[in-house]
Design goal:
With about 450 residues, the chain is of the alpha/beta class. It has helices spanning about 10-30, 45-50, 75-85, 95-105, 120-130, 145-150, 180-190, 205, 225-235, 255-260, 290-300, 330-335, 350-365, 420-430, 450, 455-460, and strands at about 1-5, 35-40, 60-65, 65-70, 90-95, 110-115, 135-140, 160-165, 170-175, 195, 215-220, 245-250, 270-275, 280-285, 325, 340-345, 375-380, 395-400, 410. Helix 1 crosses helix 3 (about 75-85), helix 5 (about 120-130) packs across helix 7 and helix 13 (about 350-365) crosses helix 14.
């Protein structure tokens, strides 16, 4: 296994101790013919290019010159389990209590089947289920004393199966039909902790999970003592459907940035349903965090009956400028007005490219101020959201043609000049327009001669 890394990469720095620990554990467990290695891609540019390294860290597993991308969790246990499954049997036999104790000590979570025989149909079903789980070790035994160490009664009816993990919920006993699909469903639903605390290390576990919908509890470390047990209890009813995540509000390293991303302010406990990275919808639980309210909220989240929440600044009291100010709560009124062609810039106040664009965008709006069918607008994407305002970065410029607002907007991919924007609008506007003639009357005192000649200025540029 080879990790391509960059010394400055934060994700690589987080992986480093886990990667080293995985190498140590493989050596201690006697796994032979497997080497864990690292390549500094900033020094070995040609080698990184040869293997199409696009980001850091990139980890490949090489067998007989062929390489396969490792995209599992970046933890010691996940790496060790993945390698063992690729290099040996998918299910390992345990015959002594010494082996069992060593496995229980070194693994965060394991699956053990207590069978009548280590070969045969039941063992085959277990093996078939295990191949669906690259990051989880499967074991089997016929020894009653081994089964007892794994929380299975020595006199239990066989086949019996248990999933053990180092969590508040330490073990889960399987009670379904002993076949691949049922075992896989049981393991999938129970392998995660009831509640995962958000950290840099657990972020990949959360966001790369097959379960996309997340229930997030935001609470300080003091408040967590009362609300976290309630949150954990609610999680028991939604295994395999939702990931329950605790975000510690008073953790400056991870809690604060996550809270800012979700628009959470203050120190009071709050619960948010998050639909994941595909559409990024958020749903807020109103009021006090109680078990009954949590369960009802989570069920509504699963059933898609909740109304999503979008961040918004207050609607401006006046909005008479050449560039109209759009916030989440007036987006429909301004941008989705079917009688207007709308050019919308989604920006961030700290974005240098946005700051460079501002005088150009203002100048364009000044030129077009007399055309009633066109609205030039902007929205701060860091403090406002709307389902129709998708931004891949700042600035993002979108065009919403009149009479066609039910369709996705057009992404404006043109030179960032007044003339280029004008030509784009002339081509794409649903309502034809033309520039009015410049005023020829004398300017009154205090008038802006630059504005009054703006039409001529643009025509000269064209």
């Amino acid at each position: 296994m080879v990790e391509f890394y960059a010394p400055w990469c934060g994700h690589c720095q987080s992986l480093a101790p886990e990667y080293a620990a995985a190498a140590t554990q493989l050596k201690e467990e006697g796994v032979k013919d497997v080497v864990l290695a690292k390549v500094d891609a900033t020094e070995e540019n040609e080698l990184a290019h040869q293997f199409d390294v696009q980001g850091f860290p990139t980890v490949y597993f090489f067998v007989d010159g062929e390489h396969k991308l490792y995209n599992g969790q970046r933890t010691k246990e996940a790496i060790v389990t993945w390698i063992k499954k690729k290099t040996g049997p998918s299910v390992h036999n345990i015959t002594t209590t010494e082996e069992a104790e060593k496995i229980l000590t070194s693994n965060e979570k394991v699956v053990l089947a207590y069978l009548d025989s280590l070969t045969g149909p039941e063992s085959d079903e277990l093996a078939a289920a295990s191949r669906n789980e690259d990051d989880l070790s499967f074991y089997q035994t016929v020894k009653p004393n081994v089964a007892k160490l794994f929380e299975i009664d020595a006199d239990a009816k066989r086949p019996a199966l248990v999933l053990l993990k180092k969590d508040v919920e330490k073990f889960n006993h399987f009670d379904g039909k002993f076949e691949k699909s049922a075992i896989s469903e049981f393991v999938f639903a129970n392998k995660l902790p009831l509640v995962t605390t958000f950290t840099r290390e657990s972020a990949s576990v959360i966001f790369e999970s097959q379960i996309k919908k997340q229930m997030l509890l935001f609470a300080t470390s003091n408040d967590s003592e009362t609300v976290l047990p309630v949150f954990r209890e609610a999680a028991k009813s939604f295994k395999g459907k939702l990931i329950f995540v605790y975000v510690q509000l008073d953790n400056e390293d991870t809690g604060k940035p996550v809270a800012e991303f979700f628009g959470v302010s203050g120190d009071e406990p709050k619960v948010i349903g998050y639909s994941g990275n595909d559409d990024g919808k958020k749903f807020f639980l109103d009021g006090e965090v109680t078990l009954d309210k949590l369960k009802a909220f989570a069920q509504g989240f699963v059933d898609d009956t909740l109304k999503p929440f979008y961040k918004s600044e207050p609607v401006p009291e006046t909005n008479d400028g050449d560039v109209k100010i759009v916030v989440g709560n007036n987006f429909d009124e301004i941008v989705l007005d079917e009688s207007k062609d709308v050019l919308l810039e989604i920006y961030a106040p700290w974005c240098g490219h946005c700051q460079s664009l501002e005088p150009i965008y203002n100048k364009l709006a000044r030129h077009l101020r007399g055309i009633d069918s066109i609205v030039v607008a902007k929205m701060d994407g860091t403090t406002n959201e709307h389902p129709r305002a998708k931004s891949d970065g700042y600035p993002t410029i979108l065009f919403f043609p009149a009479g066609n607002k039910s369709f996705d907007p057009v992404t404006v991919d043109t030179d960032r000049t007044v003339v280029a924007f004008y030509k784009f609008l002339k081509k794409h506007a649903a309502i034809p327009f033309k520039l009015s003639k410049p005023a020829s009357t004398p300017k009154t005192e205090g008038s802006d001669s630059k504005d009054s000649g703006s039409t001529k200025e643009l025509k000269d540029e064209l």
